[in-house]
Amino acid sequence: MSLRSEQRLVSTSLPTHGQLTLMFAIVVVLIVVLGATAPLASHPTSGTEGFLSAYAGAVCVIEITTAILLLATFRVQRSIGLLFLSFGYLLSGALLPPWALTFPGIFDVVGSNENLQATAWIAAIRRIGFALAVLGFAVGNPERKAASPRRWMAWSLAAVTACLAASLWIALHKADGLPSLMADERVPAGGWDYVPPTTIALYVLGILLLLRRRHSALDIWMAVVLFSLLGEILLLSYWAEGVRLSVGWWSGRIIGLVAAAIILVVLLAETAGNYVRLAEAAALDLRSRRNRMTAMEALSASIAHEINQPLSSIVTNADAGLRWLKRENPDMAQAAAALSRIVEDGHRAGKVVSGIRTMFLKGVQERAAVDVRRVIDDAVSHCQSESVRPIDIRRVYPAEGIEVNCNALQILQVCINLIENAADGSNGAREADRCLTISVRRREPGEVEIAFADNGPGVPAALSDRVFEPFFSTKTDGMGMGLMFCRSVAEAHGGRLWLSSNQPRGAIFHLTLPAPNSATAVSGRQADD
């Protein structure tokens, strides 16, 4: 899965249970605040004019930032409805500075105090314009995509600029020719009576359309925003009786501030969540690459480790053949036998490489019912003829033959590795005392256990699991791949390989393999298929 597909967009994904709970909580808190504020809504306040500029600046920054994030989402999703929504937030945020600058008694701007209608007309245009933009988002087809996002964004910014310029020109220069919205600096005139009902109707219509569609989490969040703005207009225009700077008026402004911040918080949370998912996906991809590199290193090291045995045998037989040929009376029969052994070792080396490669690939492995005693005998013969560390090997077999379902060459390599490990581990003992006991028994129905018990110094309990890790070795000249290879072969056959302590000293490697037609053998073949 690509990193891009891991991203969640609030405009395309449905809300989670936690988001729905949060939405419900916001609505409940809003209703409680409205109920608590209603009795004191019309009470005037004094000395609160100074907070107006801070309020306007905060809402302006919030709404313009929200518009920018919505435009960024539009670049990704290309849904034209998002463009309408960003248009509304951008226009609403851009109208706040002139609204605050023209507010009576706040700033000494030329003509602002004389024109009581400018502030009210800017507020009316801002509210109705935002509601119309949300309606455009609600009625639009979410699946309609913009062919050229940059061109649409350029036209959108041009439209916002034109609407902003027209709104300010009307409010600042043509307000005297329009119906009066304010009787004085705090009390509205009769013309304002038409603004709240129009705004409320647009808010309610937008809520109904968004809840009916419910295309994404953004639809429901915008319904919550409109519900919050509905509470704000009720406080400002009805419960506060339209009186500016009253308790209800300021309560409505606080609700408006929260409503403006809702989508911004949602988009920031979405962005943070996407960054977290991208970081996790990148970390997972990095781990996957490291695992692949480790697997490649393990494969190459396994090949190098296992191929050393037939190569050493080839070199030994080649030296023997040369010695037979360099004698005064060359022994052609012995030289031919050495060359035959070289050919056999060469074929065995090729099969070793093929067997190791098979373990790292999916597919059918060549397995058959094999008498495990024969495999062990071949491994013992090989080790006794090649080993430079003599060790007494005792074999304990049951009277009847025991067959296992396996790839004979791979299990032969496992047995050779375990025998050579026992020989290396017994270096500390006298040559006469060096002993390895190989026993075979039926462990469970359908399972055969082969135990390799030596009398060397053993393996510390803390290292009993680490000895099977790649590149870990207790020997100074070890590659740390032999036991990893052995366990991989055992598990690929549906068996196991583990280590336990021998008494009174030494270590025991336990190898289990499935018997022919056992459930483990059948499931192993199905997994390969």
Automatic annotation (TrEMBL):
<dbReference type="InterPro" id="IPR033424">
    <property type="entry name" value="MASE4"/>
</dbReference>
<dbReference type="Pfam" id="PF02518">
    <property type="entry name" value="HATPase_c"/>
</dbReference>
<dbReference type="InterPro" id="IPR004358">
    <property type="entry name" value="Sig_transdc_His_kin-like_C"/>
</dbReference>
<feature type="transmembrane region" description="Helical">
    <location>
        <begin position="120"/>
        <end position="140"/>
    </location>
</feature>
<keyword id="KW-0067">ATP-binding</keyword>
<keyword id="KW-0812">Transmembrane</keyword>
<feature type="transmembrane region" description="Helical">
    <location>
        <begin position="152"/>
        <end position="172"/>
    </location>
</feature>
<keyword id="KW-1133">Transmembrane helix</keyword>
<dbReference type="Pfam" id="PF00512">
    <property type="entry name" value="HisKA"/>
</dbReference>
<feature type="transmembrane region" description="Helical">
    <location>
        <begin position="192"/>
        <end position="211"/>
    </location>
</feature>
<dbReference type="InterPro" id="IPR036890">
    <property type="entry name" value="HATPase_C_sf"/>
</dbReference>
<keyword id="KW-0547">Nucleotide-binding</keyword>
<keyword id="KW-0808">Transferase</keyword>
<dbReference type="GO" id="GO:0000155">
    <property type="term" value="F:phosphorelay sensor kinase activity"/>
</dbReference>
<feature type="transmembrane region" description="Helical">
    <location>
        <begin position="52"/>
        <end position="73"/>
    </location>
</feature>
<feature type="transmembrane region" description="Helical">
    <location>
        <begin position="20"/>
        <end position="40"/>
    </location>
</feature>
<protein>
    <recommendedName>
        <fullName>histidine kinase</fullName>
        <ecNumber>2.7.13.3</ecNumber>
    </recommendedName>
</protein>
<keyword id="KW-0472">Membrane</keyword>
<keyword id="KW-0902">Two-component regulatory system</keyword>
<dbReference type="GO" id="GO:0005524">
    <property type="term" value="F:ATP binding"/>
</dbReference>
<dbReference type="InterPro" id="IPR003661">
    <property type="entry name" value="HisK_dim/P_dom"/>
</dbReference>
<feature type="domain" description="Histidine kinase">
    <location>
        <begin position="302"/>
        <end position="517"/>
    </location>
</feature>
<dbReference type="Pfam" id="PF17158">
    <property type="entry name" value="MASE4"/>
</dbReference>
<feature type="transmembrane region" description="Helical">
    <location>
        <begin position="250"/>
        <end position="269"/>
    </location>
</feature>
<keyword id="KW-0597">Phosphoprotein</keyword>
<feature type="transmembrane region" description="Helical">
    <location>
        <begin position="218"/>
        <end position="238"/>
    </location>
</feature>
<feature type="transmembrane region" description="Helical">
    <location>
        <begin position="80"/>
        <end position="100"/>
    </location>
</feature>
<dbReference type="InterPro" id="IPR036097">
    <property type="entry name" value="HisK_dim/P_sf"/>
</dbReference>
<dbReference type="InterPro" id="IPR005467">
    <property type="entry name" value="His_kinase_dom"/>
</dbReference>
<dbReference type="InterPro" id="IPR003594">
    <property type="entry name" value="HATPase_dom"/>
</dbReference>
<keyword id="KW-0418">Kinase</keyword>
